Amino acid sequence: MMTSGNIVHDPFLQSVLAASIHARQQCLQLIDLAERSAVAPSETLPFNTKFQLSAKQRQLNADLANLRQSSRESIFEVRATKQDTAEARQEVDRLHLQLQNLYYEERHLRGEISACESYDHQYQQLPLIPVEDFLEVEPQHADTDEKSLMFARINHELAEREVLEQQRQELLKRKQVLIAENKKRKDDLASLDKDLETFIDAAKPIQTLFEKQH
Fold this sequence. Notes:
mainly alpha
């Protein structure tokens, strides 16, 4: 069976509850004594009975005064406890919200990390020479970690392409020179053809004269 003693655990409230129980018992005892000592209106209570009733009344008044004082104190105690409970609940709610925010932030960061790990970086698409071939050319990188090895391979590829670009530029220059030379030769041939045509035209009267003589 659930009793008030099982519900209330605070020592101060338990003392208030005990005082109220004691005051109730005092009331019941006073009522019982008054009922047992009842006399007719025309009769007078014995002195001893009056004394007992008066003593019981004074004791009851004192207990009720203490109970009222304890009740006021218990009200203040309950209010303070409610305030502390409300503040503690707010702190718990704040910490819970902060924990949820940290959880969401962790999940977001994990997603970002996963996206970065699965991202198809441009450097992975570079036509680099195989690692084995690179290490044959640059054996000093044999014990290099994967990240530094990738940087070294990219720098090697860059250096190779710079050399190839320089060679390409030189070939372009030679091509331009050859194109200019070919153009000059074509122009010279065209000029020679024109001179030949002029010479042939000039020799036609002579050829006609020889034909008449023969």
